[in-house]
Amino acid sequence: MNNYFATVSRGLEEVAVRELENIGAKDVRPDFTGVHFKGDKATLYKANLWTRTSFRILMPIARVKSFTGDELYKSVQKIDWDEYLEPDMTLAVTCTGKSKHLNHTHFTALQIKNSITDWQKQRGGKRSSVDTENPDLLINAHIDQKHCILSLDSSGSSLHRRGYRPAIGAAPMKETLASALIELSEWTPDLPFLDPMCGSGTLPIEAALKGLNIAPGLYRDFGFQTWLDYDDKLWQSLIKEAESQQKTDINVPIIGSDRNLQVIRQAFVNAENSGLEDYVKFARQELINVEPPADKGVLICNPPYGVRLGNEAELGELYKLLGDIFKQRFKGWTAYIFTGSMKLSKQVGLRTSKRVKLYNGAIPCTLLKYEMY
């Protein structure tokens, strides 16, 4: 078994643990903004194909000394790069973390890239060229005090990019976060789902993907597909298995609405791109006119909170309106508000039954649960 590491948004570590255990990962252990786990090559492929909340799946290959840039350069040259890289393959290096002597991630990445390509030239005269957009091998370096953890990035582009969303709103929620909110809401496909402030439709679309058991990575490419040990036969078998597990129907409504006609049009495009136009309903509708489509269900919304959209002083009435609508029309429902402003959340005027601390990028946020009896 190999060691792997899934990177996640802060606060979602335990959600990612459950996802990885569900696909058969072993020795799953949460860390800060990530989860360690073990498994075979199929586990690596399935983690990319099935996890809805992870950003990247990394395969650590070495932990080397890196007190200075020179020491890092020499340490990287001790690795047998022929195991991972051929001269005709393209290469890119990304870096996170800093130390006293390695405090610029671009310099650190460049030092590692130079060490690898110099190692290649010393052995055969040919070296890999750099492709920062779509490399054959993407290396992730993480500086941890006096050491550097080198990993192969099996995902390529971030896993939040499902491939269905060219159309986005002004302050889009990442698909990984949307999926995590749905998981934390404990929504199940036998309950109606509503987002009355849906923007470009990410929450309803992610709910439909989950409800139909569609693997989120089914329609995109991954970094491991250009690795030297890529097993296409294994990958195709996992794709076929995922397709066979899809459901063909959801017997409850999944609805998104928004007052902005432009973003609702974007939501329609995103639903079509994901093949879910028959399963998700979108409508332009003012919040004050929203009505429940059934006598019970789950409502999740992500109203503006004055950081990227709106002015906090002007948003109090919006939060008060949400509370009034929940109380007057949504008895029997469980409602959630995801917000970065606890000051505004007080305007809802309802008692929460649960609060979950999360992050939207670097913004501290809270998922507030309201049980409407």
Automatic annotation (TrEMBL):
Domain THUMP residue range list: 43-154
Gene3D superfamilies reported in the protein's UniProt record: 3.30.2130.30, Vaccinia Virus protein VP39
Presence of keyword RNA-binding: yes
GO molecular function, one term: RNA binding
InterPro entries given in the database record: DNA_methylase_N6_adenine_CS, RlmKL-like_Mtase, RlmKL-like_Mtase_CS, RlmL_1st, SAM-dependent_MTases_sf, THUMP_dom
UniProt keyword Transferase present: yes
Key words, A-Z: Methyltransferase, RNA-binding, Transferase
The organism's place on the tree of life at top rank: Bacteria
PANTHER family: RIBOSOMAL RNA LARGE SUBUNIT METHYLTRANSFERASE K/L, RIBOSOMAL RNA LARGE SUBUNIT METHYLTRANSFERASE K_L
Name this polypeptide is given: Class I SAM-dependent RNA methyltransferase
Native source organism of the sequence: Waterburya agarophytonicola KI4
